[in-house]
Amino acid sequence: MSLKEVLIDELRDLYSAENQLVKSLPKSAKAISNPAMKASVKEHLEQTKGQVLRLREVFSHLGKKPTGQHCNGMEGCIKEVTEALEEDSEGALKDAGILGAALRVEHYEIAGYTAAIAIAKALKEKEIVALLTETLNEEKTAAKNVLSGAPAILKDALSQEDEEDDEDEEEEKKDPEEQESEKKSEDDEQEAAPEIEAASPAKKRKSRK
Ligand SMILES: [Fe+2]
Ligand SMILES: [Fe+2]
Asked: Same domain for 187 and 101?
């Protein structure tokens, strides 16, 4: 495998990720209540369509087709967004739940473009570096917009909380998917436990003695 092929793999992954977002961002925009956040998601959707076209330009420069690889990572990120959208809450509380998932999406893209740019630079593909940098800057701005809108949303979420009856989370019935997620999170903890135990300060003190 050549470095150019590594770049093409990265770019195909990004192309799939952007196409997945074109499908999913309208659902987020629809579900978000905060007007500023809604507007910035809508704006970023339009940018995202442009990013798909920009990647097509990159591929035509390389003389390759853009499809060929489904981005599993973005599929996972979008799944987390969907979970936040389906959460049994409204208004600012729902928006607050979407913040983290939205930020993960943007940072996942930032990571992908940063890596692709580094590889394109190593290959001295100046034109490709320029195109990808344009998109990277849009992703960075999108992440910043999510963060800058957060304080207002969180403030509203706190006051909304006062108005709503506090439901006891423990008493809520979990659906099979939630049960599976809970079980998996416990497996995650158990599988990491020996390593965590070994790294814990108490253990380290013991082993130093
Ligand atoms: Fe994007
Ligand atoms: Fe993005």
From this structure: no
What spacing in Å lies between the alpha carbon of 114 and ligand 1's midpoint?
A: 12
Do 94 and 185 reside in the same domain of the chain?
Answer: no
Percent of the chain with pLDDT over 70: 93
Say whether both 15 and 81 belong to one domain.
Answer: yes
Ligand sitting nearest the alpha carbon of 14: 1
Mean pLDDT value across residues 101-115 = 98
Q: How far is the CA of 63 from the centre of ligand 2 (A)?
A: 25
Same domain, 192 and 128: no
Measured in Å, residue 186 CA sits from the centre of ligand 1 at: 33
Long-range CB contact pairs, 180-186, < 8 A, 24+ = none
Q: How far from 70 is each of 9, 97, 115, CA to CA, in Å? A: 10, 27, 17
* Ligand 2 ion: nearby residues, β-carbon < 5 Å: 106, 109, 139, 142
Residues 100 and 195 in one domain: no
Q: Looking at the predicted structure, is the pLDDT value of residue 104 above 60?
A: yes
| Ligand 2 geometric centre to CA of 45 (Å) | 8
**What digits encode the pLDDT tens for the residues 126-148?**
999 999 999 999 999 999 999 99
Asked whether residue 111 falls in the same domain as residue 196, the answer is no
Residue the block writes with tokens 């442009």: 50
Whole domain around residue 179: which residue ranges?
Answer: 174-209
Question: Do residues 66 and 15 make contact, with C-beta atoms less than 8 angstroms apart?
Answer: yes
